[in-house]
Amino acid sequence: MENNLQLLSGNEALALGAYHAGVQLAAAYPGTPSTEILENLSRFKDIYAEWSTNEKVAMEVAMGAAYTGARAMVSMKHVGLNVASDPFMAASITGIVGGLVVVCADDPQIHSSQNEQDNRHYARLAKVPMLEPGDSQDAYDLMGYAFDISENFDTPVLLRTTTRISHSKSVVDVNRTRAVKNQQPTFHYNVQKYVMLPVNALPRHALVEERMVKLADYVETFPMNQITRGSHDLGIVTSGVAYNYAREVFPDASFLRLAMTWPLPEKMIKEFADGVKRLIVIEELDPFLQDNIKAMGIKVSGKEFIPLVGELNTRIVGERSAGAGLLPESEKVEAMSPAPGLPRRPPLLCPGCPHTGIYFVLNSIGQRSRLLEKKDDGPQEPKLIITGDIGCYTLGALPPLNVLDTTACMGAGIGQALGMEKAGVKNRVVAVIGDSTFMHSGITGLVDAVYNDGHITILILDNRTTAMTGHQDHPGTGVSAQGQDTYAVDIEALVRGIGVRDVKVVNAFNLKEVRAGVRDSLDRPEVSVVIVRGNCAMLVRKRAHPRVIDAGKCDQCGICLRLGCPAIQSEDGQPFIEATLCAGDICTICEQLCPQKAISKSEDVA
Amino acid sequence: MDKMDLLVTGVGGQGVVLASDIIGETALAAGYDVKKTDTLGMAQRGGSVVSHVRLAPKVWSPLIREGEADLLLAFEKLEAARWGHYLRPGGVAIVNSYQQPPLSVSLGQEDYPSDDEIAAVLKRRTENIYFIDGTGRARELGNVRTLNTFMLGCFSVFASLETDAWRESIARRMPENIREINLNAFEAGRKEIEGVRIGQS
Predict the structure, then answer these.
(1) Among A142, A472, B112, B193, which residue has the least CB neighbours within 10 Å?
(2) Which residues are bridge partners to A48 per DSSP?
(3) Which of A168, A338, A470 lies at the smallest CB-CB distance from B62?
(4) Would you say the CATH fold of A547-601 matches that of A226-331?
(5) Long-range contacts: A418-427, Cβ < 8 Å, 24+?
């Protein structure tokens, strides 16, 4: 086959690798940095790809497919595997028939997540094999092995990537074409394998342990675990993207680079260790390799000088290694620090964002700006306690809106709100949740609040998409991952069906309606739901009539700036609207807000 | 050109990621090993964006080490200052002298640096600084969104890659209705920087 070199991101390579490995079904819930894996797979029309309601459902869908002999894949961000951990553990014990590959994308440095957990521990916990690519070529190649390992050892395979691998592009020799092994999936009756009653589950556990023994033999021969012989003075065991940093910093060292990192190749590691004077591990996040190598009775160091927190790079590896005496101090090139005192540029809600109006209302009803002003004066009790959730709307926690008191994990806000109310706080508690997050894991919290007679307000910010991760469809949008029209779950009917009696739907771009809806809800002695509906501005292409501020009428009160809209800027105290950024007719929140009526539409169409 | 490490930076929405993709694809076509990585944080949304692009016979780390970038291509001037410490001594900075103030500046809580302050930050590393009015030129061409191909044109003068290869990779990534205007923007960027160079020498 002729050379077919392509510049692919890690996620593109994982998708293409899975496609060529004959994957027949793929399921996922969007989550940075994993989202593009399913997005890319969904473009292949000869496989089935879906956005699932959440990662747990995605895992179950993939597990069902694998039971029929189809090759199946599920992809998610690291915290998604927490949600999916129940069926993940179950898939480990039942095993599969068709290959089942579980891709999880960790986020060292917390580029876009709520924590920095190291999901390699899940491989050990679930007793499943794990593969770790270091670049896009690895991602493509490992996918070929992943499905074979899964089928040969009757186990799901965990393929663990990270943000830096998933979102970096590197050259891939695309040297395979698609081959489907099992054209007609069939489910075969096998109660001992699939029905995990205690009587069946205990023998299955014994099989899992046997599987690990066989895998421990296999990993000794895994072709992508490679030794590069260099100096005998220093041997480095490494995996994932850290391999690249280590190779650059230590061009002369010996390397054991692991692409299959669970179970570990004990013999290979021992032989490698015996051939070098000093053995170190360079890995991101936890000392996963290091601790397990230590447990083999091998003298090794690593996390004594390589940080546990954040992602690595060549500077960190170089400086820390020099500090540990592994490199001459002269290697510590003096790194320039960033210029001090520059204004930060945090992410903001977009111009025309449907969350801006409701957040401004919450800010003013809850007197949230005072919390910021008095933050050094000791404990303060918010007048409105607002539990948050995960999505674009989490950005409302930042000034100037400052409207969130909590953000923990997907769907947590409703349960937290109920817990605060039941604990006996005097002030009203409001939970804020997006439409996709509500589908993901807000529904069960709402059921709980209704059942237990909560007196809380729940605001469902329905922007008709999963916006934060780049506008994926979800069960409420009526469009499938592969672009087909499908059934849309009706949020209002769902909420009523759960038993909420006070349900209001308000237009997110009508400030008066939003304010009235929220105020009414806050007084209700029951679970009250306000669905704040308005399309994500990024979904609406039309941008007619940007607003302009009439400097003659404007008294520079600055209230429009407190919306936090990127289009509203100011020069020497005079606010103005940047026409190229303003969303125009679809929004008009600033126009509705201005006490001087100084904001109006310009006649520009663009 | 043996190797080149370059940083492309700007504000979410300016086309930084597409521009760095096109650089990577052009370099791949010219036979280089390429790695490129984008750091977006939570933003598509008006936040700071930076792409690292590395070309060499063999590239290991996708991230450029601070103080080692050969070239900084900045679509917004505050972002040029923010990432200036990545430049190696004597590296090249090409800066679109366009200002997009962050919210904290609009709220009067922080000050946008002056042109002199931005130049001083870059001069900690290099005298090879080219300020150009990319946004203005793109607007004159009829579409301010061609800023990224205009900036690519500026950059291409410093990278020894064939002009035709650039045109091919730009054409491949641009839909038909905006292909021509982007190719024109690329040419305009090439001419612009050559004019500035002569002016400076």
Answers:
(1) B112
(2) A25
(3) A168
(4) no
(5) A418/A445, A418/A448, A418/A449, A418/A452, A418/A454, A418/A456, A420/A385, A420/A387, A421/A454, A421/A455, A421/A456, A422/A452, A422/A454, A425/A381, A425/A385, A426/A381, A427/A381, A427/A382, A427/A383, A427/A384, A427/A385
Q: Lowest mean pLDDT of A104-108, A409-413, B47-51, B118-122, name the range.
A: B47-51
C-alpha span between A60 and A431 (Å, rounded)? 29
Look at residues B16, B126, B163, B85 and name the one whose alpha carbon lies nearest to residue A342.
B85
Q: How far apart are the first and last CA of chain B?
A: 22
Buried b (16+ CB within 10 A) or exposed e, A486-523: eeebebbebbeebebebbbbbebbbbebbbebbeebbe
Q: What is the largest CA-CA distance in chain B?
A: 49
Cα distance between residue B128 and residue B147, in whole Å: 21
Q: Please answer yes or no on whether A337 and B85 come within 8 Å at the CB atom.
A: yes
d(CA A265, CA A218): 8
Say how many CB pairs under 8 Å bridge A and B: 148
Rg (CA), chain B: 16
Which conformational region is residue B123 in: left (phi greater than 0), alpha (psi within -120 to 50 degrees), or beta? Answer: alpha
CA atoms of A127 and A158, how far apart (whole Å): 10
pLDDT single digits (tens) A216-234: 999 999 999 999 999 999 9
CA angle A26, B37, A338 (to 5 degrees): 140
- Specify the pLDDT at position B104: 87
ipTM confidence score: 0.95
Question: Can you tell me the mean pLDDT for A514-530?
Answer: 97
pLDDT at A604 (0 to 100):
64
Tokens of A378: 């000791």
Please state, rounded to an integer, the average pLDDT across all residues of chain B. 92
* Topology classification of domain A226-331: Rossmann fold (3.40.50)
Q: Mean pLDDT score of chain A, rounded to an integer? A: 96
- The domain A5-219 is placed in CATH, from the list 3.40.50.1820, 3.20.20.140, 1.10.260.40, 3.40.50.970, at 3.40.50.970
**Alpha-carbon A152 to chain mean position:** 30
How many whole angstroms separate alpha carbon B185 and alpha carbon B131? 17
Lowest mean pLDDT among A38-42, A196-200, A257-261, A466-470: A466-470
Cβ-based contacts of B110 with chain A (< 8 Å): 343-344
Tell me the two tokens of residue A560.
Answer: 């429009």
Q: Which fold has domain A355-539?
A: Rossmann fold (3.40.50)
Residue A71 pLDDT level (bands cut at 50, 70, 90):
very high
A77 contacts in B (CB within 8 Å)? none
Name the CATH topology of A547-601.
Alpha-Beta Plaits (3.30.70)
Distance CA B181, CA B172 (A): 14
For A321-373, list the strands marked E by DSSP.
none
Closest CA to B90 of B56, B115, B122: B122
Q: What are the extents of the domains in chain A? A: 5-219, 226-331, 355-539, 547-601
Q: Which one of A135, A339, A562 has the shortest CB-CB distance to B121?
A: A339
Q: Is the peptide bond before A400 cis (omega within 30 degrees of 0)?
A: yes
CATH code assigned at B151: 3.40.920.10
Average pLDDT over residues B155-173: 94
Residues near A334 by beta carbon (within 8 Å), at least 6 away in sequence: B67
A247 with B60: Cβ contact below 8 A: yes
pLDDT of residue A335: 64
Could you tell me the two tokens for B157? 């003068």
Nearest CA in chain A to B102: A345
pLDDT of residue B198: 59
How confident is the model over B84-136, as pLDDT tens digits?
A: 999 999 999 999 999 999 988 988 889 999 999 999 999 999 999 999 999 99
Residue bearing tokens 């949304």: B45
Q: How much is the pLDDT for B199? A: 52
Answer yes or no: is pLDDT of A1 > 50. no
